[in-house]
Amino acid sequence: MSGSSIFWNVMFYVGVVLICFIAIFPFYYAILTSFESGTAIFRVNYLPESFDLRNYTAVLGGSFGRSLLNSVFVATVTVVAALFLAVTASYALARVRFRGRGLLLMTILGVSMFPQIAVLSGLFELVNFLGIYNTPWALILSYTIFTLPFTVWVLTTFMRDLPVEIEEAAIVDGASPWVIITKVFMPLLWPALVTTGLLAFIGAWNEFLFALTFTVDTTKRTVPVAIALLSGASSQEIPWGPIMAASVIVTVPLIVLVLIFQRKIVAGLTAGGVKG
């Protein structure tokens, strides 16, 4: 191996280590801070000096636990609703020939280009009209609306790449469109479903603007708003320790989900990248 090859290999691994350090260090430092209290929070340290659980006890002892359950419910229902609608819509857009199919797909994608603040007033009126203001269903509706364009677009692309012969064989055997979707296509779409579902879950889990606007009761809040309101209006100082503890609690489920489904995620992101 030549000297230049060794140099570039070393530089590659140095770059990988640097990227991993930049990505992991903020979460690592948040974990360190979550175990500290008082003036220790403001001392810069890179190794654990104490393991005080008072910040976690303070966070979980209040209404934060309820907010955590609200986020789990809202994000899970959003993913289920978005994937159900996206799978059926992508089947129609990928397999059923009708006039304006391409324009409809571009329109669906165009919806995702609008920033949240631009449609906030319209969504607020819709939520009020439906009578679901200050309920989890207001968040589920708004999150599903913003999640659908991405999931429909991705699943339509994947479904177009599936062999037509599989569908034709199912039709010859007398399978209905619903059977084709659920029994034939969905097993083949698992990598794409996991990828889009996880991204939809993360989006709903971390969303702040709609959660702040459409909920007012503490028992209806999701975790991003709960963390933002931890300090309270009358506090003299920001409780960084409990905020860091809450941030760690909120981040850990996402890390666990990514680690569990990492193989499916990689397969979903790379499928269709190579044509045989």
Describe this structure in words.
Helix content is 74%, strand content 0%. With 276 residues, the chain is mainly alpha-helical. The chain folds into two domains: 52 residues; 209 residues, MetI-like (MetI-like fold, Orthogonal Bundle). The longest helix is centred in the first third of the chain and has 32 residues. The C terminus is likely disordered.
Strand content: under 5%
Low-confidence stretches: 272-276
How many structural domains in the coordinates? 2
CATH fold node name of the largest domain: MetI-like fold
On the 0 to 100 scale, the average pLDDT is: 82
Helix-and-strand structural type: mainly alpha
Q: What is the CATH architecture annotation of the largest domain? A: Orthogonal Bundle
Sketch the topology as an H/E string, one letter per element: HHHHHHHHHHHHH
Mind describing the biggest β-sheet?
none
Supply the key terms.
276 residues, mainly alpha, MetI-like fold, 13 helices, 74% helix, globular
SSE topology sketch:
Elements: H1 3-34, H2 54-60, H3 64-95, H4 101-111, H5 116-130, H6 136-161, H7 164-172, H8 177-188, H9 190-206, H10 209-214, H11 223-228, H12 240-260, H13 262-270
Short description:
With 276 residues, the chain is an all-alpha fold.
